[in-house]
Amino acid sequence: MAPKEPDFVEIAHQRAKEKKTHVSFPQLKYPSLRDEGLKDPVLWLTGKAMDDGAEGLWRVHDKLYDLESFIDRHPGGREWLELSKGLDVTEAFEAHHLNPSTEKMLSKFYIRDAKSPRNSPFTFQDDGFYRSLKRRVWEELKTIPKMENRRSDMVTDGLLATCLAASTIASWAENYWIATAACFIASVCLAWILVAAHNYIHRGPNFRMYYFNLALWSYRTSLIFLRPGFFTHHIRWHDGIGLLLPIWIYLTSGTSFYHAVVSWLWINCTASFIFFTIASNAAHHHPMIFKDGDEVSDVTPDWGMHELEAVMDRRDINDSHFKVMTFFGHHALHHLFPTLDHAVLEHLYPVFLEYCEKYKANFKETSSLDLFIGQIKATLKTRPTLLTEKKSRY
Questions:
Q1: What's the rounded Cα separation, in Å, for the pair 351 and 111?
Q2: Which of 173, 225, 298, 303 has the highest CB neighbour count under 10 A?
Q3: Which positions ≥6 away from 345 have C-beta within 8 Å?
Q4: What pairs with residue 313 in β-bridges?
């Protein structure tokens, strides 16, 4: 009798045991499925579910909840809960729900306590930095004008209108220089739209969050042909939004379909390059920004304190709301409170800086040039950053 082939999951667990844990947080296990199959979000979610101890439910801290009956009523949209079923969503729950009443609502769906400790190093103590700051921010929001986010909406919608107009001109114009200039303007505006759309993605369903799909950047679209059954189980209607731009160009420019598609490809590819350049130099890559392996003073840090270790803001971006919207400004506050509009975030700095000083949080600011150079230096790092090196510079 032929020996039974080992189960794929069993192999993955065995390999994970043989791997080293995270060097910054040695109590964490090596992520399951990290070295298996295609490196895509679906595989990552599957491996995370194997490690989170959520038992097919939703885990928040050390308790398990069944949110199946709440999916259609979730103010943040059903898709987020669908994707996170079977996972530990503690960090996402804490960061996306400022209203204290949310915890009372969550308790209605409690099933049982988790059987295993969290596979995460982060803590949320009531008297710690993040929860204390979150309570204060919740009160501060009551003093901020409710229509403040209109400034962000005007910037985002203005970029879209400019992109559409320039795209039409780029395909319609017979003069080479006019067409080239229009293509460039459309490309820059499209790239800035992708950045600005990030201001809306973490909120409840809203049409501006789908602007991000205008350049076919939705991860689902790129994976349709890579995983069996992916189209059936993971594709949503908004994954086709990126096809609206070439259709718009064709219908408004009066040129052939071929010429419209060529113009669209020029615009889309250039915009993607610009967006990548902005994003890769936005806030996360610098020798003084935390990367796994760097020395930490606490292996069970406050989540908010650690978020500030992993991000760096730029003074010359945060001084203009237009630059904030188009170059990922107010990035530290956005990480801490992702559901708040960037126009609202700028009002929170007095409180934020007060709590950073009180708790000795490492909020870092630099210039765009330094962050750009730092991103290059970070790619050349060959050893972890030590605490003494961080303290000597900041």
A1: 37
A2: 303
A3: 330, 333, 334, 337
A4: 365
Q: Which DSSP letter does residue 31 get?
A: P
Residues 330-361 have pLDDT tens digits of 999 999 999 999 999 999 999 999 999 999 99
Q: How far is CA 96 from the centre of its chain?
A: 12
**Tens-place pLDDT, residues 252-288:** 999 999 999 999 999 999 999 999 999 999 999 999 9
Q: Do residues 362 and 302 lie in contact, with contact meaning Cβ atoms separated by under 8 Å?
A: no
For 297, phi and psi rounded to 5 degrees? Answer: -80, -20
The DSSP code sequence of 137-196 is HHHHGGGS-TTTTHHHHHHHHHHHHHHHHHHHHHHH--SHHHHHHHHHHHHHHHHHHHHH
CA 90 to chain centroid, in Å, comes to: 16
Rounded CA-CA distance 70/257 in Å is 45
H helix or E strand, kind and range, residue 65: strand 63-65
User: Helix 349-359 crosses helix 129-140 at what angle (to 10 degrees)?
Assistant: 160
Residue 8 pLDDT > 50, yes or no?
no
**Sign, Cα dihedral of 18, 22, 23, 25:** negative
- What's the CATH number for 8-120? 3.10.120.10
At a CB cut-off of 8 Å and minimum separation 6, what does 47 contact? Answer: 12, 31, 32, 33, 34, 36
Q: Which amino acid is at 43?
A: L
Straight-line distance from the first to the last Cα atom of the chain, in angstroms, rounded to the nearest whole number: 66
Helix (H) or strand (E) holding 251: helix 244-253
Domain ranges within the chain, ordered by starting residue:
8-120, 150-280, 283-393
Antiparallel, parallel or unpaired: β 58-60 and 63-65: antiparallel
